[in-house]
Specification:
This protein is α+β, with helices and mostly antiparallel strands. Helices cover about 25% and strands about 35% of the residues.
């Protein structure tokens, strides 16, 4: 896993690039599956990040995986008002209606397609961004 250079800039644009990268890694963690991809990208206080990591672990332990990418981000933008060292990022998660398959390729579950307005907070720490919080937008 190599974080893109633009996601390593301590700017609002860098924060937006990091959020996009993080969700690319969520898709990878669920489709491989690989429970090691997400922890280095998240702050320990991010509960939603813990849930995403748990999903990857559950997929791995059950011998299943997402057959296709599950999430796509739409309209990703930095918004004002975050404390120093943090950036608020607003976006829509487009849940793609992906299938979870077993080792034989048989579908074991399928998620519905829908859009979820979402806000995230990223924090600059130890020379890089970390996902700090993810929540449904109000």
């Amino acid at each position: 896993m190599s974080i893109p250079a633009e996601a390593m800039q301590q700017t609002p644009e860098g924060a937006v690039a990091f959020v996009k990268f993080y969700f690319d890694q969520v898709n990878a963690a669920w489709s491989l599956p690989d429970a090691t991809l997400l922890p280095p990208l998240a702050d320990e206080v991010c509960g939603t990040c813990d849930n995403y990591e748990s999903t990857a672990s559950q997929l791995l332990s059950s011998g299943t995986r997402s057959a296709t990418p599950t999430l796509e981000l739409l309209d990703v933008r930095a918004i004002d008002g975050a404390p120093l060292g943090q950036v608020f990022v607003a976006f829509t998660i487009h849940q793609l209606g992906a299938k979870v398959v077993n080792a034989e390729g048989a579908t074991v579950s399928e998620s519905p397609e829908k859009n979820l307005p979402t806000d995230a907070t990223v924090i600059w720490t130890e020379g890089s961004w970390r996902m700090y919080a993810i929540a449904r937008a109000s």
